[in-house]
Amino acid sequence: MVTRAESAALTRRALLDAAAELLDLGGPEAVTLREVGARAGMTRGAPYRHFADKDSLLTAVATEGWDRISDQVRALRTDPALSASERLCGALHALIGVGRGQPHLYQLLFRRRGDRPGQRGEGLDRVRRLCAPADDTAAAVRATERFQDEFLAVVAALVGAQNARHYGALLLTSAHGIAGMELSGHLATDVWRTSADELVDTVVRMVANVGETA
Fold it and tell me: What InterPro entries does the record tag this protein with (predicted)?
């Protein structure tokens, strides 16, 4: 027999899956609590018992997005078959891969604090601000901090702990710029004679060279 807590968890899971699907299909504007409930096959009031509003729901979606990326980075970090450079390349490709496969989620992950879900922010002045969802819920903060910790551990293996934050910020802003250029169609190979993957490899090689001389 399913307990009340288990039933609530299943409902929340279905609502989050429905919200993620709607986000992928039409961006934040397509995600309304009514549409999420309908897509999940539930009553109109069901979403309100789990999420205060649309912002709360989208923050939960973003939190899960960061958790998935963190899982990928951790798997790379602990893979003994990979070199430090390969782990770092993989971590950056994991981020850019979200931009390619789920562009609306990617924009949600990198929105500036205080922006509404349909807005995108720029100004990537600090790694934590870069990675933080808009609402400072405990789960969101834990998710972004976990990603930061995993990513910085990968960077530190290449350049040392004392340089990890500086080069970590450089690498993240580079990856974000590459993903944005690719997403907007401005990174055309016939114009630049290069690709996003080649640019990531180049940036990692440059940072690796710094690590060797540090």
Answer: Homeodomain-like_sf, HTH-type_TetR-like_transc_reg, HTH_TetR, MT1864/Rv1816-like_C, Tet_transcr_reg_TetR-rel_C_sf
